[in-house]
Amino acid sequence: MSRLFAAALWALAVFGAHPGLAHEGHDHGTEAPVPAHVGPRAEAASPTFELVAIPRGHDLVLYLDAFASNAPVAGADIDVETPDGFVEAKAQEDGSYRLAAPWLAAGCHHDLAVTVKADGIEETLTLDLDLPEAGQAMPAAGAAEPSALLTELRNHLGHQGLVGAVAGGFLLGLATIALMRSRRALPALAVLALTLTLLVGGAAIAHEGHDEPPPPVNGAALIEPTATVFEQARRLPDGTVFVPKATQHLLAVRTGVTAEAAYRRTIELPGRVIADPNASGVVQSSVGGRLSPPPGGFPNLGAQVRRGDVLATVTPPVQAVDASDMRQTQGDLDQQIAIVARRVARYEKLAPSGAIAKTALDDAQAELTGLKDRRSALDTLRRVPEDLIAPVDGVVAERAATAGQMAAPGTMVFRIVDPGKLYVEALSFEALEPGATATGRLPDGRTLTLAYRGAGLADRAQAVPVQFAITGGADGVRLGQFVTVLAPTGGTATGLALPRASVIRSEGGAVVYEHVSAERFAPLAVKVEPLDAERVLVAGGVAAGRRIVTQGAELLDQVR
In whole angstroms, what is the distance from residue 179 CA to residue 199 CA? Predict the structure, then answer.
């Protein structure tokens, strides 16, 4: 049974696809079909302007854009030579121009001459507007489209006449034999037989007198040829994208004309933001101890500090053995101070009478002063903590301070960085042009201007570390942030420069969209190389003088 079913489908496919059976006078070529939802329109272009005219009821809507950039032209004076004479088009709020055109109801072909005056330029564009004959039906807005497979099959069978009926009968016979042999495929075969019968019968009926339009349903009048047709962006079978002018204005699609030139060759390097060694510093504890906040408290992250500010204090801990030794030393000093103090007092009484020499009194007094200084220094050692002082001006980039925390010697407590002086360190596998200006691209799309500062002589992971200074604005840049560095190598490359927004990355490679006509865009596979943070160099796939989408390419790529 499965073989009979496969044979039936094979016969249907061969019959429907065989070119020798096509009906006489019908062309089944391969040219791209026009979207069914697109109404009549006309377009014209010059090196300066691009114009699209679309009938809307009894009005004619004009969309005027700059040819090179696809930007809407505002404030233009537009005069249209129509069958009723010259008519001025009025500017609308949506950027279009509109004029009354009651002659659209008559249909037929119209040659229009449009005079455009804008920005000191005057040009005349001609439009060929083809409309359906009066009374001919047009697809209504939002009308459902039949299945492409069933439509194609019905058209093929309808064009066959008697041959189509015989083929349908043959297939129906095969289905009947299969039903007699097995009932398990009854539902599928029954549907197949019924479908083929309806298609063949309906096609044969439709074929007779197919030159006459179908009568109105329930007395309803046919849709006027100037009726508004719902239009939307759609990807066509040939891969191009149809986007109405109104949608282009809404999406702000912009283009640029490609021009070939020579550029300095650049390479992309992975890098990260580091601190300028001459404008940053760390605050460390020289002795182990307990951290304590200064009178104003620990500075917060991002707080501005000045050189010499006390950021924290460290109180060294006193062990039990050390405390015992210190108490013993204090006791010895106190005893010596008491003995020397009595000697000084005795010498002061005897010195006036000459019983002792004046020098003996002076020596005793000096000894007493030294003992008191030693005793005071010992008390200070136990009570005064170490101050942690900011070494440079800047902001607090890192903080590891908590009240009561024990800090070991050499522990980094604060990192101070000047946010206006930052570096970018990158790893390069190629020799760079010394002293050249590079650019950096952040993950959020922002760009940085970088100045070459030097390269290391020691390899790091088989690459040479290269440092650049951020010379432009560095607002919002953080330490450790990853940056893509685009640095010149000293060589040159020839190609077309395009904004990075023009290139769409896909599984098949890089793609750009060419503006082939007023409302059509064609995807082109290209080969690109890095040029700088905002542009890429197209090395192949696009010729010079083409209009390439520079803004809105991602939106066009989403059209299905």
Answer: 20
